[in-house]
UniProtKB/TrEMBL annotation:
Full protein name: Polycomb group RING finger protein 3
Primary localization class, coarse: nucleus
RING-type domain boundaries: 16-54
UniProt-annotated location(s): Nucleus
Pfam families: RAWUL, zf-C3HC4_2
Listed GO MF terms: zinc ion binding
UniProt keyword annotations, A-Z: Metal-binding, Nucleus, Repressor, Transcription, Transcription regulation, Zinc, Zinc-finger
GO cellular component, one term: PcG protein complex
PROSITE patterns according to UniProt: ZF_RING_1 (PS00518), ZF_RING_2 (PS50089)
Superkingdom classification of source: Eukaryota
Length: 225
């Protein structure tokens, strides 16, 4: 059975002792772990070097260096108090707007958005580089049947993560004039039929490890076994 707790019973834990409002930009004194609104604490420390709650000396000359934003506490406050975060953001925007000043949080948000966009663009670029950054394998594709055309260029260089299916599609496009006909092609190595999901790295390591490159593969019309 869930037990409901009234918000006012938690107020002493989530309010600022200086302004008596809910914590905004919760900032904690490292020495004693008492927490206040950032603006309230900074203003207090302009003329004092002690904690407003326990009066412990934070630092003789640079108390601002010994306080820290408490993200966990602020997240708790925003979760407990309905609409507090939205209302505070609106008040802050109105404050800067009335004074024709840029809102620092909007600037930070725009900066974060730019960074996220740069990251997305970088990921897209990496995805569109056709695996050029992968380990590469030199392959020689030879026709082992008189019923298929020979490739004009037998030697290719491709990603070690390419699969036999990729090679079958390549061969089908070149010799059968249609990539969709790749199921009509078999690929072999040392006269052994290769599985469609084998990567070239797997084939190289298991069938060609002690031989000189390039990896020599053969293609032929599919034979139903």
């Amino acid at each position: 059975m869930e037990r409901k707790i009234k918000l006012k019973s938690l107020n002493s834990y989530i309010t600022c002792l200086i302004c008596h409002g809910y914590l905004i930009d919760a900032t904690t004194v490292i020495e004693c772990l008492h927490t206040f609104c950032k603006s309230c604490l900074v203003k207090h420390l302009e003329e004092n070097n002690t904690c407003p709650t326990c009066l412990i000396i934070i630092h003789q000359s640079h108390p601002l260096n010994y306080i820290s934003f408490d993200r966990t506490m602020q997240d708790i406050v925003y979760k407990l108090v309905p609409n507090l975060q939205e209302d505070e953001l609106n008040r802050e925007r109105d404050f800067y707007k009335e004074r024709n000043l840029p809102n620092p949080k909007d600037i930070q948000q725009a900066h974060d958005n730019d960074e996220n966009m740069d990251k997305i663009n970088e990921e897209k670029h990496q995805e569109s580089d056709y695996h050029r950054q992968d380990e590469q394998v030199n392959v020689c594709l030879e026709c082992s049947s008189n019923n298929l055309k020979h490739l004009k260029r037998r030697f290719i260089r491709c990603s070690s993560q390419a699969t036999i299916t990729h090679l079958k599609k390549f061969v089908a496009k070149k010799v059968l004039n249609g990539m969709e006909k790749y199921r009509d092609i078999d690929i072999l190595c040392n006269d052994e039929l290769l599985g469609k999901d084998h990567t070239l790295k797997f084939v190289y390591v298991t069938r060609w490890r002690f031989k000189e490159p390039p990896l020599r593969l053969q293609y032929r019309p599919r034979i139903d076994l």
